[in-house]
């Protein structure tokens, strides 16, 4: 399976996917930590995370897949939402909580 197929399988296989450096329990950068905390604050009782530091090929190709250059990258229901700043802005506006609730209904 190609790396692009693996990325697509991750995105399609889970309603909420956070590609991040580290894990939600042990984030390896402040931006990844902030995005994971925003998801939890928005009511995401569980979400799928992928540690891009464990897979150099995925880390190198995810920006091509998503057309987004940095990490973390949040996908909800197969759609790229954005990185840390967008995730925090959506949390502050209440929109992230709505998106999370909607995604968890379809899970």
Automatic annotation (TrEMBL):
<feature type="domain" description="Glutaredoxin">
    <location>
        <begin position="16"/>
        <end position="81"/>
    </location>
</feature>
<feature type="binding site">
    <location>
        <position position="71"/>
    </location>
    <ligand>
        <name>glutathione</name>
    </ligand>
</feature>
<dbReference type="GO" id="GO:0046872">
    <property type="term" value="F:metal ion binding"/>
</dbReference>
<keyword id="KW-0408">Iron</keyword>
<feature type="binding site">
    <location>
        <position position="21"/>
    </location>
    <ligand>
        <name>glutathione</name>
    </ligand>
</feature>
<dbReference type="InterPro" id="IPR004480">
    <property type="entry name" value="Monothiol_GRX-rel"/>
</dbReference>
<protein>
    <recommendedName>
        <fullName>Glutaredoxin</fullName>
    </recommendedName>
</protein>
<dbReference type="Pfam" id="PF00462">
    <property type="entry name" value="Glutaredoxin"/>
</dbReference>
<feature type="binding site">
    <location>
        <position position="59"/>
    </location>
    <ligand>
        <name>glutathione</name>
    </ligand>
</feature>
<keyword id="KW-0411">Iron-sulfur</keyword>
<keyword id="KW-0676">Redox-active center</keyword>
<keyword id="KW-0479">Metal-binding</keyword>
<comment type="similarity">
    <text>Belongs to the glutaredoxin family. Monothiol subfamily.</text>
</comment>
<dbReference type="GO" id="GO:0051537">
    <property type="term" value="F:2 iron, 2 sulfur cluster binding"/>
</dbReference>
<dbReference type="GO" id="GO:0015036">
    <property type="term" value="F:disulfide oxidoreductase activity"/>
</dbReference>
<feature type="binding site">
    <location>
        <position position="29"/>
    </location>
    <ligand>
        <name>[2Fe-2S] cluster</name>
    </ligand>
</feature>
<feature type="binding site">
    <location>
        <begin position="84"/>
        <end position="85"/>
    </location>
    <ligand>
        <name>glutathione</name>
    </ligand>
</feature>
<dbReference type="InterPro" id="IPR014434">
    <property type="entry name" value="Monothiol_GRX"/>
</dbReference>
<dbReference type="InterPro" id="IPR033658">
    <property type="entry name" value="GRX_PICOT-like"/>
</dbReference>
<dbReference type="InterPro" id="IPR036249">
    <property type="entry name" value="Thioredoxin-like_sf"/>
</dbReference>
<keyword id="KW-0001">2Fe-2S</keyword>
<dbReference type="InterPro" id="IPR002109">
    <property type="entry name" value="Glutaredoxin"/>
</dbReference>
């Amino acid at each position: 399976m190609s790396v692009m197929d693996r990325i697509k399988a991750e995105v399609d296989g889970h309603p909420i996917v956070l590609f991040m450096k580290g894990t939600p329990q042990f984030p390896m950068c402040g931006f990844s930590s902030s995005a994971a905390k925003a998801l939890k604050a928005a009511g995401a009782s569980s979400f799928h995370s992928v540690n891009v530091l464990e897979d150099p090929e995925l880390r190198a190709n995810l920006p091509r897949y998503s057309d987004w250059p940095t990490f973390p990258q949040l996908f909800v229901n197969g759609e790229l939402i954005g990185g840390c700043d967008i995730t925090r802005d959506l949390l502050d506006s209440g929109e992230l909580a709505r998106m999370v609730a909607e995604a968890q209904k379809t899970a």
